[in-house]
Design goal:
Blueprint (H helix, E strand, L loop, with lengths): L1 H15 L14 H9 L6 E3 L5 H6 L4 H8 L33 H14 L7 E6 L6 H13 L3 E7 L2 E2 L2 E2 L13 H4 L2 E6 L3 H16 L5 E6 L28 H11 L5 H24 L18 H5 L1
Parallel strand pairs: 1-2, 2-3, 3-7, 6-7
Antiparallel strand pairs: 4-5
Helix pairs in contact: 1-10, 2-8, 4-10, 5-6
Length: about 325
């Protein structure tokens, strides 16, 4: 969580300095939910993170240098400089490259789980995240439905950060809580406080365990507030002042640090050292990526992940 916060602050600085092409989307305030998603997955599992899931990507094992290389266009990055920012992936490690944050990854994950089952693989689970805005799309409905019909080990973590870009909850849905939809889909559902790291670990970890053990698909709905704009191009001036005083608007990283100190798990000096170490890791990754060459537009094949063409595969 801490490394992610520092890294995303660095990305914001680079973006505002004109050193990053494209958008920068951060998970400020949502790091506890995202980190918990990545922590309980293991080799053989499938993870499809979205635009605010840097903490989850890190917890799932994505190297920080790979992230820096992608944002800064290095040809040595996992996307080889062909695609930047949030559309990166590590398919061979089970981390799918993001298509869209509007529900598109749900059927992709479900299809991947079906393929693993057909190949005879055992002991795996698939997890993806979604925002409350994305919960209203047709792709989400279709993907959630087929996951339950086929009985695949699937976990959907929905983060209700109270705004779909600038659209507030009352213009998105009318149910009291999105988790109320779970029984109709044949899912087990649970809600949680997305600013409480302990609760995130307990609830999301439990959902992954139940799915892995053969239970029905799991829907977890976390309540948070996006503590930034939709992207760093957006000042979020539409967020109502009274919303910022709600419990779900608390900073998950700050709450985690307070909990650690209150429980005697680490003192202020240790936390300061963690921050210094994370800052050094971020600076090293960024400086390394900045020194590396971009792809040559006249010589590259511009295939982001595949190393073979379709004709190669057919022949």
């Amino acid at each position: 969580m801490l490394q992610t916060r520092i890294f995303e602050e660095k990305l914001t600085s680079l973006y505002r300095g004109g050193l990053i092409t494209g958008g920068v989307y951060v998970g400020r305030g949502q790091e506890a939910v995202s980190a918990a998603c990545g922590m309980f997955l293991k080799k053989g599992d499938v993870f499809a993170p979205l635009i605010r899931d840097q903490a989850g990507r890190a917890a799932f094992g994505e190297p920080l240098l790979d992230v820096a290389r992608t944002y800064l266009g290095s040809r040595q990055g996992p996307m080889r400089g062909r695609d930047g920012n949030i559309h990166r992936g590590r398919p061979r490690a089970g981390q799918l490259a993001m298509i869209s944050h509007l529900g598109a990854m749900i059927p992709v994950v479900v299809g991947t789980l079906l393929a693993k089952r057909m190949k005879g693989e055992k002991d795996f689970v698939g997890l993806t995240t979604i925002g409350e805005g994305g919960m209203q799309t047709g792709a989400t409905h279709e993907g959630m439905n087929i996951a339950a019909v086929e009985g695949v080990p699937f976990v959907l973590v929905a983060t209700n950060n109270h705004y779909a870009y600038s659209t507030p909850n009352d213009r998105e849905f009318v149910c009291a809580d999105l988790v109320d939809r779970a029984p109709a889909y044949g899912y087990e559902g649970r809600s949680l406080d997305g600013t409480d790291l302990s609760e995130c670990l307990d609830v999301i970890g439990g959902a992954v365990e139940r799915a892995r053990a053969g239970g029905p698909p799991q829907l977890v709905v976390a309540s948070t507030l996006r503590l930034a704009g939709h992207g760093e191009h957006d000042d979020a001036s539409y967020v109502a002042a009274e919303i910022k005083g709600e419990d779900f608007a608390r900073d998950s990283l700050q709450r985690a640090e307070e909990f650690i100190k209150e429980e005697g798990l680490a003192d202020a000096d240790t936390l300061a050292q963690w921050r210094a170490d994370a800052t050094a890791q971020v600076n090293e990754a960024v400086s390394t990526a900045q020194e590396e060459a971009a792809p040559d537009g006249n010589e590259e094949d511009w295939s982001a992940i595949s190393t073979r063409t379709l004709t190669d595969r057919i022949s």
